[in-house]
## 1
Amino acid sequence: MALADVPAILILVGLAAYVVFAGADFGAGLWYLLAGPGRRGRAIRDFCYHAMAPVWEANHVWLIYVLVVAWTAYPTAFGSIASTLALPLFVAAVGIILRGTAYALRSGAVMDGETEGATGFVFGASSILTPFALGAAIGAIASGRVPVGNAAGDLVASWLNATSILIGALAVATAGYLAAVYLAGDAARAGEAALARAFRARAEAMAVVTGALAVGGLAVLRHDARPLFDGLTSGAGLAAVLVSAAAGVATLGLVRAGRYEPARVSAALAVAAIVAGWGIAQSPYLLPGLTIEQAAAGRSTLWALLISIAAGLVILVPSLALLYGLLLRGRFDTEAPTADEVPHPRARRAPRGLAAAALALLAGGVALTLLGAGAALAVGVVALFAYVGIGAIELLRPEKLEGD
Amino acid sequence: MPFDLPGQLLAAALAPVEQEHLLEARQMQALSFAVHIPLVCFGIAFPSMVLLVESLYVRTGDETYRTLAKRWSKVMISLFAVGVVTGTILSFEMGLLWPNFMASFGDVFGLAFGLEGFSFFLEAIFIAIYVYGWDRMSSRTHLLCGVPVVIAGLTGSLFVISVNAWMNHPSGFRLQDGAAVDVKPWTALFGNGHLWPELTHMYLAGYIVAGFLVAAAYAWGWLRGRRGRYERVALAVPLTIAALASPVQLVVGDWIARRVADDQPTKLAAFEGLAQTTRGAPIHVLGWYDDGEVRYGVEIPKLLSLLAKHDPDATIRGLDAVPPADRPPVNVVRVAFQTMVGIGTMLAALSVLHLVTWHRRRRLMQARWFYWAVLAAGPLSLVALIAGWVATEVGRQPWVVYGVMRTSAAVTGAGGVPVGYATLVVVYLGLGVAVAWILRRLAQRPLDLPSEPPPILEAHGAR
Ligand code: HDD
Ligand code: HEM
Ligand code: HEM
């Protein structure tokens, strides 16, 4: 494998992670919209919201990650894609704004009925619009409709065609399926048997829809995107499709058996396999006539990117594990006041800090303004921040805040 | 094999196109920044303020601090959500509006955004743990979970500002047929002398803007009679932090201005409305640039040379050093710059007043006008922030990458820019209404302060 291919693989990994994590958020939005009236509907809506609220922002970052790796590693391809697919990408972006705003609104306040209706609709509708638009954009790339050049492709037909619509619909259905599986698991864990049943029924229904779309979709691809079809029905591409199908069926079985934790894993596998299949079917081409090799940035950029991704993962993986650990162990569900050692007021210190802060201000000012070279600048900046930090701690001590 | 289309040649750089709506594209970019950047200030500064207040609780056990920190953290996560989505729009727009810029230079500055991505991950993860973790872990663990949020606010600014600093002072690559070759991304981004003053200036601006805006909300409350102990703390904390940062901004502003004088002399000439290259150049306060000179301004002789070069007789390059097509629109840049400096000076003066009273008299100033001034300082600091960015970005025109790529060569060839622009205006208006609504609702929730103050505080007559 060449260096130039590595970012492409990392992009696919990021895309799979985005579908697996954020896809479930979008799906939760779908179930929110379809929750129906009455107390039952309300329970479903509340549950959809509470399950996703702590994690949606982190999940969303996978998309940013995919974008930035793409534009760093394959800048020409990125420019071509972003300009030809301006419409679906813009729609997705607006959808993301609306969804985020709806989250903020809900977290901001207890809702009364009327506002909840309006924001709930926006939340649900944008949860469908965004994955559809992103899926349609992927359909455009996968069916070879994005040529190299600044807006060189057809601005509408590139993403409004059989393949794009298929992949858009598949994206929405997959999101719904994943969400139903996860939410059923969350509800079972929280001891909400009725909700767990409700989500299980949705998972089963959505499994059928997704499966039907996938099988029927092959016929569409055969007509509309023959190279993609051929790639997916031969060699390693076929293997990936079969793994995905098997994992999808297994998930259904696990859900029916009420074994939600393994179902999460197999559902994720089904998604990852199909993303991999797309990559295999399309390689070595990124866009028509443009191979991954040709599109790649220079070696120093690729190395710098890989090094920073590796370093980033060292921090990211444990942090994500912590967040999901807390979530999946239900630590965000209930208020369980952990034994809090009652703090005791500390003795007062003499306020020598303020003199230090003033000194730091003086030193920083002199270093930046009069010395102004290399090391002096660094020292100056540190000194100025030290002044702000020490000053804040000293001036905002409890006894000062009490005043006279 | 898929896509074996006959020999379409790949261009290393995409060819420039005609875009009749370049102006709208620029305005759309500017609008999106102007929406994102105030939220970013809260991402930078609010976590440390919340943590400071929570640490006061950990030190004293006084529930007032805890209530305040908890309420602020709700505001923080709501604003964070809005910051996330407006930032996402920006990421999309970089490609949607400026595909040629991305195609030619994505490999030079993209690295910074890659690192930025991890910083966002960290911020999003720990802000969630922090805000949803109240009452679910010990106070100390909880406090600790807030620290990565503060760090991510700093690194997030570092990485994104490194891109902007590179656009202002590009290096670390060679141009060949319109494409960047021999790219050295680390040097381009972090070996750039423009980065450090710009980062410091922006980071401080975050504390100034967030501090004065939060303080303004409570100053308004004070004017309307809400003057309890809780409100006093809620006003004193952000105000004192902003007041500490404001005077520093003058020093750092002077530093960054000297960098501009060295790296982007045309921009400096636009800041000051200096038409001709001049020895011992003056500064004009206020006034209007017209036909090669500043009219109606107050002239201070030789000050520009003194400030920019530390020599009253130094020669400063004027606008005439470059052909007219390479000059930015002077008045926009100059007015924006003067606005920022003027507001910055007033904020620093207000800050010194507050700091002296707070330290010497151990109380807030009591005069009514002071609270009106704090109330005004909030929005004014925001104006200074936007004005500073307008000075920076419009002052760079007509270049998107200073001296290397023109904005007109970067723009997309796709149609429909005005439609997108109009859509965004509507969406942002909706966003603004939503944010106002959220903040109001959060403010209206009843304070559930403990009815019995802890024994150590009784002497102070807590409410
Ligand atoms: C609260 C906000 C605020 C305040 C009070 C000031 N500034 Fe500022 N300024 C900004 C907020 C800002 C900014 C965050 O908007 C900018 C835009 C780019 C940047 O790094 O910071 C900026 C840019 C900026 C630039 C242009 C940098 C460039 O083009 O690369 C200069 C020369 C100054 N500032 C100078 C000053 C001076 C001399 C000030 C003193 C009074 C001052 N600023 C106060
Ligand atoms: C080209 C310009 C910019 C782009 C593409 C951009 C992109 C983004 C994105 C995608 C997010 C969301 C992060 C998430 O999903 O969690 C975000 C948030 C953020 N951005 Fe920007 N941004 C830009 C300009 C800036 C500037 C100038 C700053 C400030 C120095 C900044 C600092 C931040 C911070 C601190 C956040 C965290 C969210 C918050 O607390 O509001 N960004 N930005
Ligand atoms: C990292 C931060 C930033 C980056 C990478 C960035 C990038 C860009 C780009 C690519 C353009 C379009 C090309 C051009 O007109 O030169 C632009 C224009 C502009 N940006 Fe920024 N920007 C940043 C921060 C900001 C912020 C925070 C503001 C705040 C208001 C801002 C205001 C503007 C304005 C007013 C223009 C239009 C200039 C004109 O057309 O006259 N920028 N910026």
## 2
Amino acid sequence: MVMRNIRHIRRAWMRLGLTWTWMSLFGSNLAFATEGNTNIVPGIGLLRGIGIASALGGIIVLILVHFVYRKRLSRGTYHWLLLLGLFVLPITATLSSMATVMEGTKRVEACASCHVMDPFVNDLKNPASPTLAARHYKNKWIAKDQCYGCHISYGATGTIAGKRDGFRHWLYYVTGTYSDPIKFVGSYSNSNCLYCHEGTRIWERIKSHNALRADLEQDLVACIRCHGPPHPLPQERTGSAMK
Amino acid sequence: MFTDFMLHSNRCFIQNLFPYLMRCVHSLLFALQPGSKRKKIELPGNGFPYKEGEVMADKDEKSEGLTRRDALRVLGVSAGIAMIAPLSGCGGVWERQPVIPVDAWHKGVCRFCGTGCGMMIGVTDNKVVDVKGDEYAHNRGRLCIKGLMNREILYGEGRALYPMIRKNGKLERATWDEAMDLVATRFREAIDEYGPDSVAFYGSGQLYTQESYTANKLFKAGIGTNNMDGNPRLCMASAVTGYTSSFGKDEPAGCYEDMDYSDCFFITGSNTLECHPILWERMLDRKRSHPETRIIVVDPRRTFTAMHADLHLPIYPGTDVALYNSMMNEFIENGFIDRDMVENYLSFQEGKQKRTFEDLKKHVAQYPAERAAKICGISPRDIQEAAFTFASSKATLSIWTMGLNQQVQGTASNRGVVAMHLLTGHFGRPGATPFSLTGQPNACGGVRDTGSLSHALPGGRLVANATHREEMEDLWKVPRGRIGPKPGYHAVALFEAIAKGDVKCCLVMCTNPGQTLPNSNLYRKGMEKGFMVVADSFHPTETTIFADVVLPAAMWVEKEGVKGNAERRYHLYPKVVDPPGEARSDLDILVDFAERIGHGDLITAKTPKDVWDEWRHISAHSKYNFEGITYERLQKERGILWPCPTEDHPGTKRRYIPGEDPMAHGGGRFDFYGKPDGRATVWLDSHEEPVDPYTDEFPLIFNTGRILEHWHTMTITGPVPELQSIHPDYLEIHPHDAHHFNIREGDQVIVRSRRGEVELRAKLSLVVRPGMVFATMHSAKHLVNQVTHDVYDPFSKQPAYKRCAVSVRKKTV
């Protein structure tokens, strides 16, 4: 009877421990969800929390299940917990963290996290700057995720080229091999501007726009060639851009 | 499987590796399926989830199996290769590629307006394929649509490719030798028989400085005639006389950078948004970063520029003098006069009489707001508000172009604006300056500064001044007396003389007077009479059709040279491609011409660099000194602002300030070194009634101007494919007037004046005021200059395009 009681007690402890772990993880999710940062993108904190919780939870579950409680679990329970720890939680963690990255990188804070971007973010938030970025930000023409509003090719539903560019940027940045001052390579896609601007009454009545419509749609002429500069020019950048 | 790799050398690295990797992965996936061989892992106890000896499936076929170890190896290597491979140079995979690939970018400048935007010119295979703004130039990488279309202009239809001579009434192809021989012979005959004043040169503010300078020297100091004028006479002459009568020297005192510091922009007679769009953007930038900046626009039309104004004064054309006198009256009455300026730095003049400040007070008191408002057709309140805003802001910058210049009272209007700045002290500080904008890219550097006008000599000198003539004769190393003492024919008079037969031969370069002269019917008939030699890049134009000899000229970056934009910036245009056909640069044509008529020993500088060096050394003997702007500096930098006397001088942003302007001396606030007493002059001018009176027969005011998308007479922008859909031959008419004359939108109408008529398409618009109609000067199919008046400003001889009296009626089919 003492042996049976000990097994019951240990199972009780285990259940208590697991419950406590889950509740604390769930609680920290809630904490993330209500964090001040997340009122811009309410989902990011939650996604991040789920990802972290799943990752940690998965590790904990696997360690506990395989090394500590294996002998005390029935085969069915063991298999279900392995399914949880090897597949469900890792997949959840992967999806959540991917979503966090894909969606989180749309935020201005994400761009600002690399210091080579400091001059651009300083300019964006400078109400006295006449660059396109600053004006769109100052006048709230783009409600949130202002960088993404024009550089629209990233995100989970973005282009392959966007992901390649992101990878390339990351690679050059961490290896310190980017050229300074940084420049936009290739032709800027006008669809980023035309997405909002084309078809409006003001845009359509400008003779130059109508004359260049075909060129603009094929990116033979960039909107920013007349209406730029979108960001401070190399000689105008302030803030740290040092490697 | 690992051994079936085959290298295709005509494919890039990725294209070689990727299929192989795909095959590896494919095999991998296949191998990892259940049923492939793998090692059994024995675990202690009952931990192993399967019964001993059991495999998940009992397939036993021989597959191209990989062990897990091999799988990991392959995956690891592939990942590594995938990381490094993109750096191999397969550009399209790794980086965004530009839509228009360019071999090399060259630093240059836009072909069109007086803003003079820096641009990078992309060349591939000896062809200009793309242009983009130069980020390091004053325009900060911006271009307008005409700037962007620079990449198309060299390749338009209608390029003149070979010389032509008129034989039996038709233009036929000839060789350069034939053409130039004929030109030289006819000119020589005319000079020998009728004297040097029987030949003339009509140049352009779009020729390079070296070309205008050479033509000026050849005609004035070689041939010995002062019949050497140009199309800036039709454009900027009143600005020249406005500045020279106020300061003694031509050209604005400020620079574009002043727009970054102004608190009030007073834009009068300028549709800046359409005609100097990049400067307008710069002014808008100032307003965007400082929203309290005020923009006042004085323009008869409610242009796109006026739509952005905080205050718009839609005055009648030709009433500027009344407005500025009234504003000066407001300044005096409200205590906005800078006493220091008045007492120490200004003098006053009316006509030939010296005056005092008290005289000015009495003079402008004749223009109280109520009276001026009636003359101008606006409200007195607006005049008072404009005056208050102008005077009370921290720094006021005035901008004007053709609205002021192309009037009978052009000079008076120009110096009225200058006077407002001088009296209120809005001068010489960052953001405070009267800035006349130049229309053409090289009217300043090429024609005004080199004195390539019929009354002028280089460096601000005058033909009528004996000392000046002697100075130039010495500098040009010609005998005293070679330069004639009488000013030659100005533009309108020149073509009048050709029509009369007083001028037998005329060389026209880089301009289209057949379309741009006012009252053009008269002068077009005249051009049939004279021996016209026309050098242009396009044929046919409204001038080449009258030519006896057509010479094909190279254009823009097909030839090298220097131009000077509106802010006194001399900048270099490089040669990056070869001209088409047999076209040659205008400098080559002039040098060739000089040699053939016997002045080859005078025109010793035959290349752009040599001419530049000669001219800059001569400039050191004047207040337009730019000797320090060497060719090397021009090649390296994005232009330099003169005065620039030495090679280490950075250029001058604001003139007349001792300490900043190297030509200014003394310790005072200003040194107006252009005037003998060192004081700038405020002129007392009176409003004059219009010359072409309105009657019942001609009740409407006819105004002319431009649109953003086209340049001048459309010879260059007309063939551009993107601009084909823009038709500028319309007549803007207010609905009130349209109703009165029974005209509907889109009707063909006849606009008639005392001189001629033109057919246009009616466009009902609220842009014009009732009583006023507007047409553009661009179209060759509908020549609005048949209607305009060739009356001109008495001081500058600039014609008044901006108003005449017309009638409008619907064309009866």
